[in-house]
Amino acid sequence: MTDIGFMWDTFLTLLTGVPLTLELAVTSILAGSILALALSLLAVTGGATGRNIAGAYVFVFRGSPLLVQMFLIYYGLGQFRHGLQDLGLWWFFREPYWCAVLALTLNTAAYCSEIFRGGLRAVSSQEIEAARACGMSGVLLFRRIIVPIAIRHALPAYGNEIILMLKATALASVITIMEVTGLAGKLIADSFRAFEIFIVAGAIYLAINFIVTRMLLLVEFWLSPHMRMRLQS
Amino acid sequence: MAFIGSYLALVGFGPTGWGWLLLTAAAMTIGVSICGFLAGTVIGSVVTFMQLSRHMALRWLADCYTTVLRGVPDLLVIYLFYFGGSAFLGSIGGLFGYQGFIGMPAFLTGTLALGVVSAAYQAEVFRGAYKSVARGELEAASAVGMRPWHKFRRIVAPLVLRYAIPGLGNTWQLVLKESALISVTGLVELLRQSQIAAGSTRRPFEFYLSAVILYLVVTWFSSIVFRRMEARTTQGVRRAL
C-alpha cells in the first residue's frame, strides 16, 4: 500500500501547482478574449481590409503549434535583448511567465475571434432591424441587442475553448514554469513512476475541467431564461 | 535588407545553411503525424464501436476514454508513454537479466501518444458521422439482404467517412500541431531541429520563425487536401445551404 501513500504525496505536491495553472489560464483567457473581440469586430465591420487582417492573424496563430509560438516569443525575442531594453520592454520578455501568458493570449485570441465572429454572424438581421425600428443605433444597439445575442450563440464553443486553454497552460512547463504539468514532469523524471503520477495529475485536470464545465452550464442557464419559459408552457 | 540576406544564408541550402536539415525535420514531423493519426483512426474506430455497443459497460468505458484523453494535457500523455514505456521496457529487460536503462524509442512514443490522444477526438467524429447516416439507408441495406459485415463495408463505412471528413480534417490539424510536443522526448522533428539549430548558431528568432513558416505551409497544404477530399466524397450530394 505504499502506492497510495506515494500518490497522496504526489497529489499534495501537484496541488501547489494548481494556482499557477489557473492564474495562467484566467489571465490569458481574459486578455485573449478582449483581443479576440477587437479582431472579430474588425472582421465583421472592417470591410475587406479588416477581414483580411483578421484572417491572416487567425491563419498564423491557428496554423502553427502553440509551443513553437511560445519558443519564438521566449527564446526568439531574447535575441533582441538590447532593442527591447531600449524600448523598456525587457522586464516583460525576460520573464518566462509573461512570455507564456503572451503566447497563450495571442493563441487563444485567434480561436476566440472565430467563435465571436460566428456569434456575431448568428445575430439575425430581423433582430437588428427591430432594434433600429425602436430607435436604437450605434453603441446602444450593440450593447443592448447584438452583444447579448452573440454571447448566447458563442457560449458553448467558448466553453470548449476555455477547456482547451486549461490544457494548453501545460505547455508553459516547457519554458520552465512549474505549474501542475511541470511539477508532474519533474516528479516523473525523478521517480520514474509515470503511471501513478499521470493518474494523479490527470485527475486534477479532470476535476478542474468538471468544475469549469458545470459553471459554464450554469451561465448558459442564466443567459437563456426565454428558452426555459418556452419549455414550461 | 541586411537582415533578410543573413536570414536566407542561415536557413538556405548553402554550405552553412540549415535548409536541408529543416526540411528533413519537417518530413519527420509529417511522418510521425501520419503514423499517429492512423493509429488514432484504428483506436478511434474501436472506441466508436464501443460507444455504439449495446452493452452499458462498453459504452461507459468508451465514455471514460474520450473524457479523460480529451481533458488531460497532451504533454502528460507524452510523459506517460515516454517514461512509462521506458520503465516497462526496463522491467522486461530485467526479466532477461539486463539491469540498465532502456529508452523508449522516440518515434514510437510519438506515434503512440498522438494515436491515443487523437483516437479520443476521432471517436467523437466517427460517432457523430454515424449518427448522421440516415436510418433508411441502413434499413434498405438490410432489406436487400446484406449481412452485417457486408453492410458495414459497402454502406456504413463509405457514408461515415463522407460525413467524418471535415471533422477528421480538424483532428489532423490538431495532430500536426501536437506533434511539436514530441520534441520533448528528443525526436528530431521540426521543433527539435529548430532548437538544435538555434542552440548552435545562437539565432533562435530566425529558426523558430522558420519553424512557424514551415508549419503554416504544411497546415495550409493539408487544409487544401482535405477540402478536395470533401468535395470528392460529397459529389452528387444535394446541399440545403
Automatic annotation (TrEMBL), chain A:
Its main location: membrane. It comes from Rhizobium fabae. One of its GO terms (cellular component) is ATP-binding cassette (ABC) transporter complex. Keywords: Cell inner membrane, Cell membrane, Membrane, Transmembrane, Transmembrane helix, Transport. This is ABC transporter permease subunit. Coiled coil: none annotated. SUPFAM superfamilies: MetI-like. The chain crosses the membrane at residues 20-44, 56-77, 162-185, 197-223. It is a multi-pass membrane protein. Residues 18-216 form the ABC transmembrane type-1 domain.
From TrEMBL, chain B:
The chain crosses the membrane at residues 20-49, 76-96, 102-121, 155-175, 207-226. The keyword Transmembrane applies. It is a multi-pass membrane protein. InterPro entries: AA_ABC_transptr_permease_3TM, ABC_transp_permease_HisMQ, MetI-like, MetI-like_sf. Keywords: Cell inner membrane, Cell membrane, Membrane, Transmembrane, Transmembrane helix, Transport. The keyword Repeat does not apply. One of its GO terms (cellular component) is ATP-binding cassette (ABC) transporter complex. It is found in: Cell inner membrane; Cell membrane. Residues 26-226 form the ABC transmembrane type-1 domain. One of its GO terms (molecular function) is transmembrane transporter activity. It comes from the Bacteria. Belongs to the binding-protein-dependent transport system permease family. HisMQ subfamily. NCBIfam families: HEQRo_perm_3TM. This is ABC transporter permease subunit. It comes from Rhizobium fabae. The lineage of its organism: Bacteria, Pseudomonadati, Pseudomonadota, Alphaproteobacteria, Hyphomicrobiales.
